[in-house]
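Section 3.1 - Work completed
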Amino acid sequence: MIRMAAVAAPFGRDMAECFARIADLTGRARADGVRVLALPEACLGGYLANLDGDAEGPPALAADGPEMRRLRSLAGDMVVCAGYCESDAGLRYNSVVCVTGDGVLGHHRKVHQPLSEDSSYAAGDGFAAFDTPVGRLGMLICYDKAFPESARALALDGAEIVVCVSAWPASRTNPAPDLADDRWTRRFDLFDQARALENQVVWLSANQSGSFGDLRFVGRAKIVGPGGEILASTPVDGGMAVAELDVQAALAAARRSMGHLRDRRPETY
């Protein structure tokens, strides 16, 4: 059995506050027996204040810098996924890293960029799964999950667990009075469940909550089983969704009769 958790919480520009919140979250997760923890997109330094193309970006961090060493120290014996703004060769990427106290297990740069996000970040160029102490894992960032090919590429690479970290906002053009009823909250949930079901994988969805700049985030972190069922979730105002699952048994049961990866007919697509 693997106890896993996904977080919905607010993160801004103050790096000391970000690390204080991460320290609290990792401490609580460890005390609860969690082995894999998904933190939101841009939890180190915050996301963009708007998606109009003129927002000042978060601090750009090196993938092997002191912040990553501090994150690894907080992770300890847990597998922790966390989003940040990566600096590499003069470019900035919206990235997510997977670490334990022993080092970096995996890394992903956001491929799909909504609205004017490309004014702030360069785009990643691929999807790859990697081995961890809790099984083979893949990572996506926010808008990546709107494209079925993203999660499918990870599933075909053997991912058993997919972690999608987000800073997913509510609708700006037609916001609902109740954030739980917002159309972008509904889409966030639908994408999580559909991607888990169509690939028959365990899905951890972390998200920012609260507001930053012009954006109001929908929270709703969750863990979804390989049948598309929500095993645990947070409200829109945040929290930590925790579930325990025998991943191998759950995947085997989901794929026993209707194996979506096995039954593909790629020559016809």
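Second construct:
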Amino acid sequence: MKIRRRAAAYGVCRSSDGRVLITRASEAAAFPGVWSLPGGGIDHGENPDDTIVREFTEETGLAVRVTGLRAVLSDLARLPDDSVEHTDRIIYDVAVTGGDLRPELDGTSDIAEWADPEQVATRPLLRFTAGVLGVRFDDPALELDGPVDITRPDGPVQRFGAYALATDPAGRILLTRIADGYPGAGQWHLPGGGTDFGETPETALARELYEETSQHGRITGLLGVSHRYDPAALGPEGVPMDWHVIRAFYQVTVDAPTAATVTEAAGGSTAEAAWLTPAEVATLPLTELSREALRRTG
């Protein structure tokens, strides 16, 4: 089975009278004539926040600013060439700051239009668009028949991950220390990691949380999305990885904490896991993702 993977950013933009901006796929797209939220693929090394601004200008002629983060989703689709594509989608709320509405010029969409809820409900929509806009979608979602074996490709790699700012009822914070030989070695990081092909961020987060810390938690909120691009970073083999990492991070509560230990399934990148008080955390070298998550929660 031929497989593909991509990460993309989309925006929900509403007018003052409640209409939403949608775009129609052109003949150059995989599904011509199907409508979607404006947006598209995140370029290698690009901040997803910048992707949505760029894509809106390209597809609609409008300048926008991000006003909020709505959701992080993933889905599978069978493309016309019979390959299966996994797309991780970051959904933003955006507001228009300028420009004039126009169709995309020689691209994968051919119409940009403000539509009211009744009009949206009559259009053929991509599944994720229907879900975000609350429109019923009857076709069953594509599911994988079994595990997919993916070998790391040569050249740049874009990786999508899910991470947890996990706390327990006593207010302790769960962190993991990065092992020697990996980027950020010795720093304390949020538990989490890359999502597998066909895996949702929530499922990946539960798996990674258990693998790296032996804990079971529940997601209580989506804190944010960040990215890191360091083409010179060396992997454990001493070879530059040129990885672009896009990370969704969540607030997680562990209601029944146990001793934090790393399982064998976590691999070699996690040296140890620990429950730490806020005072202890303040003395540790932290990754930029840990610092950002802690800042957002105070």
